[in-house]
Amino acid sequence: MADAAPAARSIKLIAFAASLRRDSLNRLLLAQAVLAARAEGATVEVHDFREFIFPAYDGDMQASAGIPEPVQHLGRLVTASDGLLLSSPEYNYSVPGNLKNTIDWLSRIRPYVVQDRWALLLSASNGRVGGNRGLWHLRVPLESMGMMIFPDMFSLALAAEAFAEDGTLRDAALRDRLGAVMHRFVSAVGRARA
Fold this sequence. Notes:
By secondary structure, the chain is an alpha/beta fold. The protein is built from 7 helices and 6 strands; from the N terminus they run αβαβααβαβαββα.
């Protein structure tokens, strides 16, 4: 582990919670994940998901006007990074429609901008599964585009009860688990980029 720290300092991540709700539990979880990543030496640039809400994917629109500039902007952000922290709610046991649409637009940029980039997927839910089912669905389109999805995912169940007033996780064991997952993720990205 001693050799992972120097590599970790050069890791650049982008992060967003795929939720539009201001008081989203996934935004709270992402904030804790960002702190954990920075504690591991990573540089993390946080974005609001509203930046990545695009019109419904339309092949005719793409053919007539090309890929919209906001989509290309997201592509440049991904290309300039080593990886992504993505906290996503679970809608109807699957991926939120807005996020899937964002991925569909992003997949139109060639070569794939997520190719060989890493991602750590997180979710927070009031349910007892913690949004885990949605994350399994989310892996499929990202992996099909060549993104390296970290095997460990972090799903926070009963999330409305999990956060203290200051936004931190109440349970020390959960804080430790998030920190351990982040250590492994940043270390893996560092080794891959070395």
